[in-house]
């Protein structure tokens, strides 16, 4: 998969290196030549450029990128400008780092697909979730077991938990279902928030748009994610 990461500070640099180590193609961008120099031998491509310059950004392979991550962590204005610029380019998946609550509200209003928070472990979790098909977030329970949020595969839509036979076939448990609800923010722009449905039963039906919270061995999770709908 291909990713563009704008901002190569502690968070962005760590995320870029981890994704590259997982075998993905990563283009890292920063206005600081020192930050570019620090990661250039550890990621696919590192470019020193001003990401607020629309003409420079248009030369990037944006349409081929599976996601663009705005990881700028200090410059409030630059982060908003860059996020808005990439939003205009109709990126497949636009993810932006939150600097503070006000900044988060603004980038929500711009219409990013996902918002990241600046803890370093978020970069580790993000790298793991990006490399697995359909995964929204992940949590390591131990070296071998994970809890993950994954978009419900099309083959399970309309089935009950029992009918999916996930536990029998893959030794994976569905802990709960998460549904996305649209609520207006302070600007009146609708944004999505998660609503956990609670404890599921064998008769709970999976609906279009549901997110499954799965628990299991990493190899079993990777197996089920590798299947095509």
UniProtKB/TrEMBL annotation:
<feature type="domain" description="RCK N-terminal">
    <location>
        <begin position="1"/>
        <end position="116"/>
    </location>
</feature>
<dbReference type="GO" id="GO:0006813">
    <property type="term" value="P:potassium ion transport"/>
</dbReference>
<feature type="domain" description="RCK C-terminal">
    <location>
        <begin position="149"/>
        <end position="229"/>
    </location>
</feature>
<protein>
    <submittedName>
        <fullName>Ktr system potassium uptake protein A</fullName>
    </submittedName>
</protein>
<dbReference type="Pfam" id="PF02254">
    <property type="entry name" value="TrkA_N"/>
</dbReference>
<dbReference type="GO" id="GO:0008324">
    <property type="term" value="F:monoatomic cation transmembrane transporter activity"/>
</dbReference>
<dbReference type="InterPro" id="IPR036721">
    <property type="entry name" value="RCK_C_sf"/>
</dbReference>
<dbReference type="InterPro" id="IPR050721">
    <property type="entry name" value="Trk_Ktr_HKT_K-transport"/>
</dbReference>
<dbReference type="InterPro" id="IPR036291">
    <property type="entry name" value="NAD(P)-bd_dom_sf"/>
</dbReference>
<dbReference type="InterPro" id="IPR006037">
    <property type="entry name" value="RCK_C"/>
</dbReference>
<dbReference type="InterPro" id="IPR003148">
    <property type="entry name" value="RCK_N"/>
</dbReference>
């Amino acid at each position: 998969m291909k990713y563009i990461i704008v901002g190569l500070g502690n968070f962005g640099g760590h995320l870029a290196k981890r994704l590259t180590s997982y075998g993905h193609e990563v283009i890292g961008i920063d206005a600081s030549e020192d930050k570019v120099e620090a990661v250039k031998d550890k990621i696919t491509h590192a470019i020193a450029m001003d990401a607020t310059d629309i003409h420079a950004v248009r030369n990037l392979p944006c349409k081929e990128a599976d996601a663009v991550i705005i990881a700028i962590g200090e410059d409030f204005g630059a982060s908003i400008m860059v996020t808005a610029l990439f939003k205009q380019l109709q990126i497949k998946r636009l993810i932006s780092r939150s600097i503070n609550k006000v900044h988060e509200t603004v980038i929500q209003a711009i219409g990013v697909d996902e918002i990241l928070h600046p803890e370093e472990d978020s970069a580790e979790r993000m790298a793991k979730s990006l490399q697995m098909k359909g995964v929204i977030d992940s949590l390591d329970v131990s070296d071998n077991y994970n809890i993950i949020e994954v978009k419900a595969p099309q083959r399970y839509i309309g089935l009950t938990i029992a009918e999916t036979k996930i536990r029998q076939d893959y030794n994976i448990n569905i802990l709960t279902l998460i549904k996305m609800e649209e609520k207006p923010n302070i600007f009146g722009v609708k944004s999505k928030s998660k609503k956990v449905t609670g404890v599921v039963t064998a008769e709970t039906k999976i609906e279009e748009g549901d997110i499954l919270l799965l628990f299991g061995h990493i190899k079993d999770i990777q197996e089920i994610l590798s299947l095509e709908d």
